[in-house]
Amino acid sequence: MNFLKKLLNRPVAPATVPEFWSWFLSEQQSFFTVIRKKDGQLIHNRFLDKIVPRLHALNPRFYCETGMTDDTTAELVVSAEGDIPTFVYVEELIDAAPTLPNWKFTALKPSTGIRMSIKLNGTPFDSDTIRFFYDEEPGYPDEINLTIIHEDFSEDNKNTITQGCLLYMDALLGELNAATLIDDLAVGGPADAAGRQLIPMEKLGDFLTWKEKEFVEKYEGARHDTENDQYAALEGEDPDGLPSIAIINTDLLDWDARASHPWMAVVTVDYTKTKGMINNGMPGEEQFSIFNELQEELDSLLVDSSGYLNLGRETYNGKSEIYYACREFRRISKLIDRTIRSFEGKLACSYTIYKDKYWRTMDKYAHTI
After folding, report:
1. For 72-91, what is each residue's pLDDT tens digit?
2. Do 81 and 162 sit in the same domain of this protein?
3. Is the pTM of this model over 0.85?
4. Nearest to 317, CA basis, from 369, 346, 280
5. Which of 183, 199, 219 represents a domain boundary (last residue)?
């Protein structure tokens, strides 16, 4: 499983998931023969260079790796390289995979187990060189904030050590858990752990499972009805005189169960990429009207009873952003993606989803209300 290939930006005919698997079926025997030889250059030229553009045609954020799980089984792992909005599409692709006798198909990079070891620039990363400790920040008891301690960390090699520790964590926990169970991760050396009790990496998986179970039980069933919520209209300007206009749900910012909706989805419209701009970074009337249509469409899909809370929106410096707190990240990824695609040619839209249990994204508004 040492052959990782980023997607190449090559032209290839548009594809659907069924078309991809139909093509794979026609090539799978030759692919298996290549991978079984365990020749890195051969795998690069005759497998990755063929499959990567096909995956890219499905989704430009798809990555893959391959190798033999045993003497008779080749594995194709499709990854999103930690990009949370892409996870659901990787999972759907693998769910649609055919059953083949000499193949295993895996969604997202799996855990390689606690006994694994990697090297980066000659530096080892394993359970002998790495420990961790856990911080509970006052006021944010549900956040999982970890510090990874590598015994050889120094200012001179901190980039290598940090990169190696992140790769190690990804392999230790698997792509899904590494991206979704930890809220904040820092890397340091023995000096950063002075007075702290360091925990062996072998215990990290059980620790995260326990904390996640505790978290889910704490907030199970927490809901918020926004029908009668109060909103505040905020106006301001930056030091250069650029105005900002925001509409924020003030009741939600005071809610004591915010962590029950731990995912933050931000939909961004960039007016600088379309026509209709006016002075001071504000959109023209036509563009702003289309933006309102976009939000109305999103709000009709992302309702509070289904676990989505519209926290508000802001327009500033050529962009508008809409903020949603969510109970999950899979379904909302598809709903937002499908909606903004329907506005292609009208608005330049993008979105991101990330863990934000206490809605710190909204702190700048809480301090002005």
Report:
1. 999 999 999 999 999 999 99
2. no
3. yes
4. 280
5. 219
